[in-house]
Amino acid sequence: MKRLLWVVILLWPVAGLPMDGNQLLKACRMLLKSESAPLTPEESMQAMVCSGYVGGIWELVHYFRVAEKPAGNLFCPTGRVEPRKAVQITVTYLEQHPDLLRYLASQQVVRAFQEAFPCESE
Fold it and tell me: Is 85 contained in some domain?
């Protein structure tokens, strides 16, 4: 939880929270681009925003799952998911749902994870 708090504190002024899906998609594309090409300082900052944002949501839901809180069942991965995979899932979802890009990015990240890691019905 401390890690998530630090991510939020450090990225708050950079990300200009809340952000929408358009802003997150742009930032996450920069992160994926960084694997094949060098980034400018501005692009690097955007890539870090994506990493912190997507990773923070992942960590928060994981925290609720471990603490057995209701929000812990928003999505249910069956094993370890690498950070790059979580970002790729988010980018793919945002690209497939351009009509949702104007809404809060946090909602879209959760929806992307729900689609990729559905929970079994009880």
Answer: yes
